[in-house]
């Protein structure tokens, strides 16, 4: 499972897919989300702008990405 560290309080689903390397572009993210190919916390998510917070789990194409808050120690 991959981990994506938040820079802010949340990240939008489309941005998270692109930032984690699961898709190569925003256009690809829009397509796979609208086609119901992405799950957030076990549920199909159709909103590209869905806000993901610390602890969210994104699943696409057999890959998983956990969203985590950035450590304040860095």
Summarize the topology:
Blueprint: E1 2-6, E2 11-12, H1 13-19, H2 26-34, E3 38-40, E4 43-44, E5 51-52, E6 57-60, E7 63-69
Helix pairs in contact: 1-2
Can you tell me the CATH superfamily? RNA-binding S4 domain
Give start-end ranges of low-pLDDT stretches.
none
Q: Mind telling me the CATH class?
A: Alpha Beta
Given the C-alpha coordinates, what overall shape results?
globular
Mean pLDDT score: 94
State the helix count. 2
Number of strands: 7
- The end-to-end span amounts to 22 Å
Helix content class? 10-25%
Structural class of the helix and strand makeup?
alpha+beta
SS strand fraction: 25-35%
Question: Largest beta sheet: what is the strand line-up?
Answer: 1-7-6-3-4
CATH topology: Structural Genomics Hypothetical 15.5 Kd Protein In mrcA-pckA Intergenic Region, Chain A
Main sheet attributes: strand count, strand direction, barrel closure:
5 strands, mixed
Describe the protein in words:
This protein has 74 residues and is of the alpha+beta class. The chain has one domain: Structural Genomics Hypothetical 15.5 Kd Protein In mrcA-pckA Intergenic Region, Chain A (Roll). Helix content is 22%, strand content 34%. It is built from two helices and seven strands. It has a five-stranded mixed beta sheet with strand order 1-7-6-3-4, with helices on one face. A hairpin with a 2-residue loop joins strand 3 and strand 4 (43-44). The longest helix is centred in the middle third of the chain and has 9 residues, at 26-34. The protein is globular, with a radius of gyration of 11 Å. The two termini are 22 Å apart. The relative contact order is 0.29. The model has no long low-confidence stretch (mean pLDDT 94).
